[in-house]
DNA sequence: ATGAAAGCGCTAACAG
DNA sequence: CTGTTAGCGCTTTCAT
């Protein structure tokens, strides 16, 4: 079943059939219709492979997730996939699992398949070395960024997000703010903590990205004076909240708590529901996709593109209340 | 940069170059090497599109996730992607978002691109109508299954998993078991509940797939007598545990609790960590991929392939203890 | 308005 | 052992 068969069925040449099917050239309306009818009748589906070979574009992009696909990559991927799909692009999925060998293998596969471009995503916001030097197709890094400043990366403004969280806590009257977050060596923990530090009543507590650590940190803080917690993640926030409430502190009346990530399952299951900083990963993925599409169309936008985070307010910081201490 | 350039650089014909690069035909070792050197020197990457057009296989499969990619599709996808990658297959990602229009659009895209096969995944274990009748390529359904029994589906044995959970609770001496689960109309809730019912001390409590519902159900149960809870999901289990503990019941001493899904972030964050039923979604994805590869190679295995669930035991059912009631 | 023909990059059958 | 050639299915000049 090729365009030959359609042409034969419609009694025209393949060239004419091609024009009819693609709305090109100048054809009599009647002819066009006749070809289309024949195509429908035969259930003809044009072979994209052949077209690709002819026109030189595959309308395909590769998506490499450096670390394994996790909670962060998903919204990124979906946003990107959706935006690319709107541009008629298909997405080849490559899960590199944090393995440089796999990454290079996938890269070669993608180049061999002549993708029009590549988006690289991953969990770690930290800058990473470029995929490879001098790639023949545009690459955009989403969430992860490249150490080469000439590469196109789109990243969340984590420092800005942290600042918004702090400002919000201050706006509801809190003055004694503490910060509990992930591992000190983790770039996101560092960036968020640095942005918060000027407003903190004590040095940040670094630990793990887990609820258990949140609970532990909460316990450690019980004999200190504070009226707000900015947590480096929703999981940590939830752990903190649990401990505080078990110890009789009211949230948000006694202590307001705000998390980071706005991970639905965490923020809604927490009691009370958590205010949080949303990095808009879906939008990030979309933005990355659009930058890639632009680059493919010859309008690259090199450099780091920083996108704002958004505050999502829920009960855990709901009550402005009075300033309770000091 | 085509094979022509390589041939020219090596001083051979394109045919010879092709053979050298693909280890076909009979060539002098020296010639073969000369061609390879030229290819390396020029950084030649064979054009997979052209090869595809010639040999008729794309070594690409489509992966359609019916509902949006979520917690369940991810391990499925990754398992499948990994297994397919081992077979040199690339994966085209299609997120249909529960929209039949999108699904059909993607299906056409995939057919147009001449994928060698399609895997369909999704969150709902419930059977769904086939993608389309008489597809020219093999399709396998993973987790979701097709209503057409002739289609190839691979699904978890949810009833068996529920039975294992119940047996485990009985094995540690529990006799008054209750079941709290998701919406009654949800196929997974039904299947799991049906398997549990003979062993239950009261009718199942149907509600939602949320922690909040688990808490609520826990509260409703407080004035009943029971020594074990089989929850339809880890989230529900966690909610139940929280309520029980707040009310002074010890888990697992007074009430053993087991969940379903073995969702790491839930089972580990719960206090105590939750025993759970694991559907081995990664293995499911792998199995689906292998069935698809087999079908592509002319050895289809039609029908429903049921895979066992696995019990993962943690503290929430850790203590055998004495039978406390009855 | 339509048809004929060249060619995208590669492989494979057939000559030499 | 190596070169020549004929396509894979489609698009696109260029004639007619």
CATH-assigned homologous superfamily of the largest domain in chain A: Response regulator
Please state roughly what percent of the residues of chain A sit in beta strands, choosing from under 5%, 5-15%, 15-25%, 25-35%, 35-45% or over 45%: 15-25%
State the separation between the terminal residues of chain A, measured CA to CA.
81 Å
The number of distinct β-strands of chain A equals: 14
| Count of alpha and pi helical runs of chain A | 12
Most extensive protein-chain contact, per-chain counts: A-B, 40 and 40 residues
Give the rounded overall mean pLDDT of chain A.
Answer: 94
Would you identify the CATH architecture of the largest domain in chain A? 3-Layer(aba) Sandwich
Trace the largest sheet of chain A across and list its strands: 2-1-3-5-7-13
**Fraction in helix of chain A:** 40-55%
- Quote the CATH topology of the largest domain in chain A: Rossmann fold
General description of the model:
2 copies of one chain form a homodimer. Helix content of chain A is 42%, strand content 18%. Mean pLDDT of chain A is 94; it is low at 321-326. Chain A starts with a helix and ends in a 14-residue tail after the last strand. With 326 residues, the first copy, chain A, is α/β, with parallel strands linked by helices. In chain A, helix 8 links the parallel strand 8 and strand 9. In chain A, the strands form 3 sheets. A 6-stranded parallel β-sheet of chain A has the order 2-1-3-5-7-13, with helices on both faces. Chain A folds into 3 domains: 3-46, no CATH class; 58-156 and 280-308, Rossmann fold; 158-279, Response regulator (Rossmann fold, 3-Layer(aba) Sandwich). At the A-B interface, helix 4, helix 5, strand 2, helix 6 and helix 10 of A face helix 4, helix 5, strand 2, helix 6 and helix 10 of B. The first copy, chain A, binds a DNA duplex (16 and 16 nucleotides) through helix 2 and helix 4.
